[in-house]
Design brief:
This protein is an all-alpha fold. The chain has helices at residues 2-18, 25-42, 48-70. The longest helix is centred in the last third of the chain and has 23 residues, at 48-70.
Length: 71
Protein backbone atom coordinates (compact mmCIF):
# COMPACT_ATOMS: atom_id res chain seq x y z
CA UNK A 1 0.00 0.00 0.00
CA UNK A 2 2.98 2.27 0.46
CA UNK A 3 3.77 2.01 -3.25
CA UNK A 4 0.20 2.94 -4.14
CA UNK A 5 0.34 6.05 -1.98
CA UNK A 6 3.74 6.89 -3.47
CA UNK A 7 2.28 6.54 -6.96
CA UNK A 8 -0.57 8.91 -6.14
CA UNK A 9 1.89 11.39 -4.63
CA UNK A 10 4.12 11.16 -7.70
CA UNK A 11 1.17 11.75 -10.04
CA UNK A 12 0.16 14.83 -8.06
CA UNK A 13 3.73 16.11 -8.00
CA UNK A 14 4.08 15.68 -11.76
CA UNK A 15 0.82 17.51 -12.44
CA UNK A 16 1.37 20.26 -9.90
CA UNK A 17 5.08 20.94 -10.21
CA UNK A 18 5.99 20.11 -13.77
CA UNK A 19 2.69 20.63 -15.53
CA UNK A 20 1.54 23.66 -13.60
CA UNK A 21 -1.90 22.12 -13.09
CA UNK A 22 -3.35 21.30 -9.71
CA UNK A 23 -5.76 18.38 -9.82
CA UNK A 24 -7.32 16.48 -6.96
CA UNK A 25 -9.47 14.28 -9.19
CA UNK A 26 -7.22 11.23 -8.97
CA UNK A 27 -7.17 11.55 -5.17
CA UNK A 28 -10.97 11.51 -5.10
CA UNK A 29 -11.14 8.23 -7.01
CA UNK A 30 -8.34 6.81 -4.86
CA UNK A 31 -10.46 7.69 -1.83
CA UNK A 32 -13.58 6.09 -3.32
CA UNK A 33 -11.67 2.86 -3.86
CA UNK A 34 -10.18 2.94 -0.37
CA UNK A 35 -13.57 3.59 1.22
CA UNK A 36 -15.19 0.79 -0.77
CA UNK A 37 -12.38 -1.58 0.19
CA UNK A 38 -12.71 -0.73 3.88
CA UNK A 39 -16.48 -1.19 3.83
CA UNK A 40 -16.26 -4.51 2.02
CA UNK A 41 -13.63 -5.78 4.42
CA UNK A 42 -15.19 -4.53 7.65
CA UNK A 43 -18.94 -4.78 7.01
CA UNK A 44 -19.32 -7.46 4.34
CA UNK A 45 -16.61 -9.73 5.76
CA UNK A 46 -14.66 -10.11 2.54
CA UNK A 47 -11.03 -11.17 2.90
CA UNK A 48 -8.66 -8.22 2.62
CA UNK A 49 -7.08 -9.21 -0.75
CA UNK A 50 -10.51 -9.54 -2.36
CA UNK A 51 -11.67 -6.30 -0.77
CA UNK A 52 -8.60 -4.52 -2.16
CA UNK A 53 -9.31 -5.77 -5.66
CA UNK A 54 -12.98 -4.86 -5.38
CA UNK A 55 -12.07 -1.42 -4.03
CA UNK A 56 -9.80 -0.83 -6.99
CA UNK A 57 -12.57 -1.88 -9.32
CA UNK A 58 -14.96 0.43 -7.47
CA UNK A 59 -12.61 3.38 -7.82
CA UNK A 60 -12.12 2.59 -11.49
CA UNK A 61 -15.86 2.32 -12.03
CA UNK A 62 -16.37 5.67 -10.31
CA UNK A 63 -13.76 7.20 -12.61
CA UNK A 64 -15.34 5.72 -15.72
CA UNK A 65 -18.79 6.83 -14.56
CA UNK A 66 -17.64 10.37 -13.86
CA UNK A 67 -15.71 10.52 -17.12
CA UNK A 68 -18.63 9.24 -19.17
CA UNK A 69 -20.98 11.66 -17.46
CA UNK A 70 -18.73 14.64 -18.06
CA UNK A 71 -17.89 13.87 -21.66
Amino acid sequence: SGLIVAGVALAWALLGNLGGMVSFGHAAFFGVGAYASALLSAKAGLPVPLALLAGGAGGGAAGVGAGAGLL
